[in-house]
């Protein structure tokens, strides 16, 4: 079976995250610019994925907070403009469920992460394009990636939680083969 190449459809996908704020609340955010490809060779356990995220595209709907997140205190987007995920293996975890094991690189620090993924299906859209859809979740400790800035609160705890919950809802469109001239 030949390898199929799929491009992430960024207009129908979301790369989001949640982090605790001041111990009791949660802040939600997303990245608005990214690109990615999936390589599928029949069985999804043999699939590979690569996603490159523009770190400066972080959006929590608060401009001052987003600018702080872009600064050297956090992502340092001038020195480290991209976050990168590359899968290493996919393991079946039940009907339409998979564990996608891969390397996440943030600030030039690479750590293994495991995405708990669900295959949502394969369809042909009204315009004839083939699509795949997935959702996936994982949690990371931001300190593992050099994101250590924080402030202690007078009432106890810290301003920014250490655990980041990441949630992906993605569609990918099958790349159309180039026709020979």
Provide a descriptive summary of the structure in words.
- There is one protein chain.
- This protein is about 5% helix and about 55% strand.
- With about 180 residues, the chain is mostly beta strands.
- It has one domain: Lipid/polyisoprenoid-binding, YceI-like (Lipocalin, Beta Barrel), CATH 2.40.128.
- Strands 1-4-5-7-8-9-10-11 form an 8-stranded antiparallel β-barrel.
- The two termini are about 25 Å apart.
- The mean pLDDT is about 90.
Q: Brief description of this entry?
A:
With 181 residues, this protein is mainly β. Helix content is 4%, strand content 56%. The chain has one helix and eleven strands; from the N terminus they run ββββββαβββββ.
Largest sheet: 8 strands, antiparallel, barrel
Q: What's the CATH class, please?
A: Mainly Beta
Count of separate DSSP helical elements: 1
Number of separate structural domains: 1
- Strand content bin: over 45%
How does the helix and strand content classify structurally?
Answer: mainly beta
Radius of gyration: 18 Å
Features:
181 residues; mainly beta; 4% helix
What's the helix and strand layout?
Blueprint: E1 4-8, E2 14-21, E3 25-31, E4 34-40, E5 48-54, E6 58-59, H1 63-70, E7 82-94, E8 97-106, E9 109-124, E10 130-141, E11 160-174
Antiparallel strand pairs: 1-4, 1-11, 2-3, 2-11, 3-6, 4-5, 5-7, 7-8, 8-9, 9-10, 10-11
